[in-house]
Design brief:
Radius of gyration: 20 Å
Helix content: 40-55%
Largest sheet: 10 strands, mixed
Structural class: alpha/beta
Strand content: 15-25%
Shape: globular
Distance between the termini: 21 Å
Number of helices: 13
Number of strands: 12
Oligomer: single chain
Length: about 350
């Protein structure tokens, strides 16, 4: 099978972790006789430095022509601490989401037995957690207009906007995932306060009638935030709007004990993007200490959801679990007093495991 993959390493540790994911993808393709074709492009701060645009037209054209996009991370202190900067790396991510029609961010949150001790929650609360957060990406406060400040700078305003079509699209996607899992869906909103949330609930309640097999619950966002730390195992699939999803998925990520372990997929109208949820971690760039596992697990999602190659995705996840059991991990998740390994060493071990398992 021919796999046309756009590779966008981005900034900071992005190039290092993407390199390890590509090693694993190559190993999977060798084992299962697939033919990967990679093309690399700029995005983020490195794209601004080279072209003045955080998401250049050439990068967009490549993504549009590809079956899937494997994406690292964006962000740079050079722009974070410069209030005078008119263009920022993060604008490249927003532009990519908008232009590719990336309307749903999917974040599976699963715990690993070897990492339970690193979770801030009690072991009995996090063991066996397996939930999926689905966040709407193209609407809400992050894209609503009008947006701005008063002439004297004393007042600022943002507008939260959602259409029935945007809500229906992602809620139906969430039901599709719930049908493949434990048949439970939690719709998160703030319908007691916000007009957009009342529309979300109205649309979700109408769609629920088409999925009688799925247990549907409706939960205010503040209650959902509490439930995530009180009883995370009670969730199966959660769907919500852009800003609520941004906050809740970061909260959920802490359950696992490490941000470096969580992959994500952004489903689009034209193609889909697969990336770790963590940032560019510029302090670690070039030091061969960054944890590549979330990026490698994102590659597993790519095989499963972009190419419908379930076995290939499973083999990658099995290799990651084996590396953790064997202690072949970077310093951030190594057991106290145990040896840790460099980013490239972990990638090499995973690639060999995939080939020889």
């Amino acid at each position: 099978m021919k796999l046309k993959i756009a590779v966008l390493p981005g900034d900071g540790i992005g190039p290092e972790i993407i390199e390890q994911a590509v090693k694993v993808v190559d190993a999977v393709c060798e084992r299962y006789h697939h033919d990967p074709a990679y093309e690399t492009a700029l995005v983020g701060a490195c794209a601004i430095d080279a072209t003045g645009n955080p998401y250049p037209d050439e990068t967009h054209a490549l993504c549009m022509e590809s079956d899937a996009v494997l994406f690292g991370a964006i962000g740079s202190p050079e722009y974070d601490h410069n209030p005078a900067a008119t263009v920022r790396p993060e604008q490249g991510l927003l532009a990519m989401r908008k232009k590719l029609g990336l309307y749903a961010n999917i974040r599976p949150v699963t715990t690993f037995s070897s990492l339970v001790h690193k979770s801030p929650l009690r072991a009995d609360l996090v063991e066996g957690v397996d939930l999926m957060c689905i966040r709407e990406l193209t609407g809400g406060l992050y894209f609503g207009r009008p947006q701005g400040r008063s002439e004297d700078g004393a007042v600022a305003y943002d507008t939260c906007v959602y259409s029935r079509e945007e809500i229906e699209r992602i809620v139906r996607l969430a039901y599709g995932y719930a049908m493949k899992r434990r048949k439970k869906l939690t719709v998160v909103d703030k319908a007691n306060i916000l007009a957009t949330s009342r529309l979300w609930r109205e649309v979700a309640q109408a769609i629920a009638k088409d999925f009688p097999e799925v247990e549907t619950e409706y939960m205010f966002v503040d209650n959902a935030a509490m439930r995530l730390v009180q009883w995370p195992g009670s969730f199966d699939v959660m769907v919500t709007e852009n800003m609520f999803g941004d906050i809740l998925t970061d909260e959920a990520s802490v359950i696992t004990g490490s941000l470096g372990m969580l992959p994500s997929a952004s489903v689009g109208l034209h193609t889909s993007v697969f990336e770790p949820i963590h940032g560019s971690y510029p302090q670690a760039a070039g030091k061969n200490i960054a944890n590549p596992l979330a990026t490698v697990l994102s590659a597993a999602l790519m095989f499963e959801y972009a190419f419908d190659l379930r076995e290939e995705g499973r083999v990658i996840r099995d290799a990651v679990a084996a590396s953790m059991d064997a202690g072949i991990v970077t310093e951030d998740i190594a057991a106290r007093g145990a040896e840790s390994y460099g980013t490239s060493e972990v990638g090499n071990w995973l690639a060999r495991r995939v080939l020889n398992a």
